[in-house]
Write a structure and sequence with these properties.
It is a single chain. The chain is mainly β. It has a single domain, classed as Domain of unknown function DUF5300 (Immunoglobulin-like). About 15% of the residues lie in helices and about 40% in strands. The chain has one helix and seven strands; from the N terminus they run αβββββββ. A four-stranded mixed beta sheet has the order 3-1-6-7, with no helix packed on it. The protein has a three-stranded antiparallel beta sheet with strand order 2-4-5, with no helix packed on it. The longest helix is centred in the N-terminal third of the chain and has 16 residues. The N and C termini lie far apart (about 50 Å).
Length: about 120
């Protein structure tokens, strides 16, 4: 009986640990409302000049589209991140100092030569 109970508890633990409810506290959705077609997305800790690899897992993020970003590869200590978007014309747009621990759905907008984000409500 004890052995069966232990097996059941272990199996339940594995199931719960692999469920979406255990996503990274920094995961977020990005909604493109810039009027631009985004070709690349980069995320780095705030003020870090190393952008790493493009994390957009699809060819483009068209205007009006949403993309889920998995932040599980990022460190546990940082909360604030910079997000760089590269459009189809190779223009770079940077949104600085986003607190991804507090904001999980962001809308990126552009007006003239400035890009900013708003929390999606």
């Amino acid at each position: 009986m004890t052995k069966k109970l232990f097996s059941l508890v272990a199996a339940l633990g594995i199931l719960l640990a692999s469920s979406p409810a255990f996503a990274s506290r920094l995961d977020f959705s990005i909604f493109n409302h810039t009027g631009l077609t985004i070709k690349e997305v980069y995320v780095s800790e705030a003020n870090d000049t190393n952008w790493g690899e493009d994390i957009l897992e699809k060819d483009v993020l068209a205007d009006g589209e949403e993309f889920e970003i998995d932040m599980s590869d990022f460190g546990k200590k940082a909360k604030h991140f910079d997000i760089k978007l590269v459009d189809k014309d190779r223009n770079e747009w940077i949104v600085e100092d986003v607190n991804l621990e507090a904001v999980h759905s962001i809308v990126v907008r552009k007006f003239l030569n400035k890009v900013w984000f708003e929390e999606k409500k």
